[in-house]
């Protein structure tokens, strides 16, 4: 069931007309459906639930809003975090420290120390010096840090180059060929409790085959590590499942992922972690915007909307496609470019696209904006930071305020030596 649907010719999120949110909160604004978040969380958990021992940690970089995180915490999700800031959010949202795992190639000593103090459940080590530093910090505190080694399986995930993470040339993980010797050295350190292996080969994967190749390589590595006498109790299989952005896009389901993972891992006898991000949040949110002008262009008009690349960076960053729909469609269509007000030629959301006809003042939405949307927003061009709204049934709450340029400016100052 889709929780963004038209009723009487206008788009609703659950039982709230989007026009009401636009009138009361203004635009641009992100709108999330709690029911969709809950459904996605349940469907993913049930899909991978065919594995005997499995934990789900939401990759909170996809959507770190506190309200959204609370919904997922209530669904039993832990968190995959990549910074001290994300850890603080996960804890504030009610996720238990033991259900938090810490990924990322550049964890600082300060972040590692804070995570040890918080008692998080798993450190995903990205290279040996990081493991040595963590071991020393933990030993000093009289602790033993639960850790897994992230390996780079050198598998082409078949996704956009900028969101591919499992190729040898990418910065993530250690070469799988070097993993056995490195694992042995790390396991020998006091202060580290080396429990297993982690991988994550990329995001927006539309095919399970690269994941299956990567999992298979991990299976071979586990056998090798066990043969060398290591106890392997945990494997983190990362995230990456894609979502449909365009009408007709077909993506593997969580159930298909679960079936494949159960088959490949059947003899592993370990706890399995998953770190889904986009598949949980992507289609649970839209970015609502108002048309400012329809400006004539050479081949087709530019629909200038009040959202811009600073609010939703994916189209300008990855040429990503986000479907545009009018909140109150007239039934007519037009061929147009859609652009924002930012002073960059690349501040476009769509070029040469057939869309619902819109005119100045009309509302529209960019779909599938719940993941890597608001979280990547900035205040470029001194625009406000975009607000976020969570809908549940016929209620809505503003879960992130619009931060005005003046508020951002209040944190800046002119040095006293300047006249
Ligand atoms: C280590 C790690 N885990 C999980 C994710 C979440 O990925 P996705 O949103 O594609 O599920 C990412 C982002 O690609 C990541 O880097
Ligand atoms: N920001 C990317 C995903 C990055 C995944 C993080 N490892 C996107 O919008 O598609």
TrEMBL record:
Oligomeric form and interacting partners: Homodimer.
Family: Belongs to the Orn/Lys/Arg decarboxylase class-II family. LysA subfamily.
Residues with N6-(pyridoxal phosphate)lysine modification: 61
Every Orn/DAP/Arg decarboxylase 2 C-terminal domain range: 30-370
CDD domains: PLPDE_III_DapDC (cd06828)
Name by which UniProt lists this protein: Diaminopimelate decarboxylase
Domain of life: Bacteria
